[in-house]
Amino acid sequence: MTVATISSRGQITIPADVRATLSLKRGDKVNFIIIGNEVKFLPVTKDINTLKGFIKKPLKAVSIEEMNKTIKTRGSSS
Predict the structure, then answer these.
(1) CA triplet 15, 34, 71: central angle to 5 degrees?
(2) Which of 9, 41, 66, 69 sits in a 20 to 30 Å window from 60, CA-based?
(3) Is residue 61 scored above 60 in pLDDT?
(4) d(CA 71, CA 63)
(5) Domain contains 3
(6) Residue 28 neighbours by CB under 8 Å, 6+ apart
(7) CB atoms within 10 A of CB 60
(8) Measured between alpha carbons, how far is 23 from 73 in angstroms, rounded to an integer?
(9) What pLDDT was estimated at residue 46?
(10) How many domains are there within the chain?
(11) What is the rounded distance in angstroms from the CA atom of residue 28 to the CA atom of residue 23?
(12) Element (H, E) at 66
């Protein structure tokens, strides 16, 4: 596990191995994404394909008919 220390100004240096893995270089930007108690960061300068796998696939496939039925049911209760 790679560890970074927060400075008195609230800053961290991204460790070299993390920068290398993400191909980050000076001037690159990153987005911070908060999910529950976890924070992920993604390079802004990367291709959208780097997001593959970020959102997990549902366990069960849902048909269009099931989606329409759910939308109709939940939409009518508002």
Answers:
(1) 145
(2) 41
(3) yes
(4) 12
(5) no
(6) 43, 44, 45
(7) 6
(8) 47
(9) 60
(10) 1
(11) 9
(12) helix 64-76
Residue 76: per-residue pLDDT: 63
72's tokens: 């109709």
Spatial distance between the Cα atoms of 65 and 72, rounded to a whole number of angstroms: 10
Q: Is residue 23 part of a domain?
A: yes
Token pair in block for residue 45:
């300068």
Q: List Cβ neighbours of 43 (8 Å cut-off, separation of 6 or more).
A: 22, 23, 24, 28, 29, 30, 50
Residue 1 lies in a domain: no
Number of other residues whose CB lies within 10 A of the CB of residue 45: 14
Query: 63 pLDDT exceeds 80?
Result: yes
CATH number of the domain at 28, please: 2.10.260
Tell me if 49 is assigned to some domain: yes
- For 35, the domain range is 16-76
Cα dihedral 41/44/45/47 (nearest 10): 90
